[in-house]
Each structure stands twice: as structure tokens, then as C-alpha cells.
Amino acid sequence: MKVINFDEHKTLLSQYMSELRDKDFQQNRLRFRTNLERIGEIMAYEISKTLDYCPKDITTPLGTAHCNVLKQNVVLGTIFRAGLPFHQGFLRYIDNAENAFVSAYRKYTDNTNFDIHIEYIASPNITGKTLILVDPMLATGSSMELAYQALLTKGTPDRVILASVIASRQAVDYLHSKFPTNTVSLYVAAIDEEINSHKYIIPGLGDAGDLAFGVKD
């Protein structure tokens, strides 16, 4: 699995990341969601450089322009609920993408251990298409991997791209073991080295779903 870590370069994404992590900025849910969308837009643009295009002649009011248009059929997949603003950022740039949604959540068996449960899938057929699967936080990587396995019930994609805002080193290693070939790429805005006993990323940013939409009961 090829890993592209945006934190290795200083860009405007670094500014958005600093606000996402800042507990004071996090009091503004609109700002939090907007920053997730902005990061999604930046990643979508960078990913677009790796996609396939075909030439197309476009008729203008004054003549013909030779352009390049996206050749691949893209399915943009998202894990509820924290993934929704991140997904929207991608969708603004890859606006012709088909969309897939997976509901995955942690069901704790005690204070520190949990299983990942998949309850809902809505997806087009993904056979022969490019699947971009996005989830803002990769603590263990198991939610991303199980969501991908769930989407495989809808077909087999030609190419898989995973995208996250913050991943733990453990999650990156886990996904690398599950996707050992270079046909799969992981785009991340930052990789943090630790997770705590509750499997939250340290320093991370907290619960992205709660920060974006409010605390769940």
C-alpha cells in the first residue's frame, strides 16, 4: 500500500489541520465541518492528478477547444457519520462521482474493547470502477477495512484509494497488512504515533462525529 502523507509538506492544509485539532476552534461546529470539507477538497485535487483522462473537443462560442475530461468512473464511499463533511469536500471536486455510504460503529464489550458493527450499506455496483473510500479518523483501521469488505458485496473495483485526515501509526500498519499491493493508496493529512487504551488517536483531535454534529446519546 502506497502512503501519501500531506504532513510532510507545509501547505494551507496545515492551517486547516491546526484549527481542527485546536480545542478552542472546535467549539464552532460550522468551522470544524468546513475545515473537514476543505481538507477533502485539497485531497480530491491531489488524487485527481493520478486519475485517467481522455481528450475531448469542446465547442466554444468562438471555436473548438481541445480539453481533457475524466475517463474513470469514480465511486466515492463514506463511513457514517463523521465522514459526511469530508465526503462533501471530495464531492465538490469530483462532482460526477457515484456515491456509497456505510454505517460502521464501535460496540464496546467493556471499557476498552469493542467490535466494529456494519448496519447499513447504500452503494452502486463498483465493479471496474475507482473506489475512493474516505473516513476522517483511522484509529485502528478496522472500520475502514470492514467498510471496504462490505462494499465488495457490490462488486470489485479496479482501483482503491483510501483517504483520512488523521491516522495512527497502528492503523497505517494494519491497513498495509490488509492491502499489501501498490494498487491501493492511502492519503492522510497527518499520522500520529499513539492510540490510548480506548483506541483514540493521541494527540488526534477527539471524536470527529461529535465535534461535527453534536454529542450522541
Give a description of the structure:
The chain is an alpha/beta fold and 217 residues long. Helix content is 31%, strand content 35%. The strands form three sheets. Strands 1, 4, 5, 6, 7, 8, 9 and 10 form an eight-stranded mixed β-sheet that branches. Strands 2-3 form a two-stranded antiparallel sheet. The protein has a two-stranded antiparallel ribbon with strand order 11-12. A hairpin with a 2-residue loop joins strand 2 (53-60) and strand 3. The longest helix has 20 residues, at 29-48. The chain is globular and about 65 Å long. The termini are far apart. The mean pLDDT is 92.
User: Which residues sit in consecutive blocks of at least 5 with pLDDT less than 50?
Assistant: none
Oligomer: single chain
Mean pLDDT over the residues: 92
The chain-level structural class is alpha/beta
Task: State the shape.
Answer: globular
Separation, N- and C-terminal Cα atoms: 37 Å
- Number of continuous helical runs: 6
Helix percent band: 25-40%
What about the largest sheet? 8 strands, mixed
Q: Strand fraction band?
A: 35-45%
Radius of gyration: 18 Å
Order of helices and strands: EHHEEEHEEEEHEHEEEH
Counting DSSP E segments of at least 2 residues, the number of strands comes to 12
